[in-house]
Amino acid sequence: xxxxxxxxxxxxxxxxxxxxxxxxxxxxxxxxxxxxxxxxxxxxxxxxxxxxxxxxxxxxxxxxxxxxxxxxxxxxxxxxxxxxxxxxxxxxxxxxxxxxxxxxxxxxxxxxxxxxxxxxxxxxxxxxxxxxxxxxxxxxxxxxxxxxxxxxxxxxxxxxxxxxxxxxxxxxxxxxxxxxxxxxxxxxxxxxxxxxxxxxxxxxxxxxxxxxxxxxxxxxxxxxxxxxxxxxxxxxxxxxxxxxxxxxxxxxxxxxxxxxxxxxxxxxxxxxxxxxxxxxxxxxxxxxxxxxxxxxxxxxxxxxxxxxxxxxxxxxxxxxxx
Length: 322
Prior knowledge:
With 322 residues, the chain is α/β, with parallel strands linked by helices. Helices cover 40% and strands 11% of the residues. Strands 2-1-3-4 form a four-stranded parallel sheet, with helices on both faces. The protein has a four-stranded parallel sheet with strand order 6-5-7-8, with helices on both faces. Helix 3 (100-108) links the parallel strand 3 and strand 4 (113-116). It is globular and about 60 Å long. 48% of the residues are buried.
């Protein structure tokens, strides 16, 4: 792959946006809390984990999620009640290194089954990324203290790796709730088929394009880019709302001309101001590429597959697919 491809380094993001103690996820505000139903109670850390739990568990699970629709998951802080729910749950499904607050709570939790999605596939290092959290000194400090987290956690945006995680989740559900193992297996097979179809659609849809380079606010698409032979150029890496340096803007403008880039992508959960400014200055279009960290009213679809299909459509248009 092109050496310029960026990665999220370290996901050593400190929780910046605290939720009030009473804040609960939309999936758990009115229903029974985890551990209080006659179903297999699963606490999912954020939407991609929630989707897997619901699809694989089907009618046998009660799923609550820790991250509200519309909330940026990297910044999650947990309420006391959410932490308590984790301890009452039959299973906690999370992605280690994406949400530090969740990692800490899981480590201290009494949940019967703890499923780390990051352990069910292989995480990768996707190169360097600009740091916009206090300058080079701070970035080096993060790197040294959190070196083990220098791998990109955004595996769910690669349908193949997401399917690997789904298979591992299904096995964990089967072991933890053997009475319904056959149904979990059946549901997982149906999901694998759906994700296989999505992979084929991306592979075929992006096979022949005018350019292989795309610009995005947030360095979330490294796995997707690698899977389908593309190059991701992130404007800001970890912080999609910060202002890039003038040198970075100039560099991206030059790359846009050299690589035939037509579009700067922004996303639904954060401001598109930076992407739109860059696009205006460079004479480029803007569009949405959804990192699928949550489903909101602004999402182009109502579940993982439909939003990924919308992402494929946007990429085909931006890259000049045949």
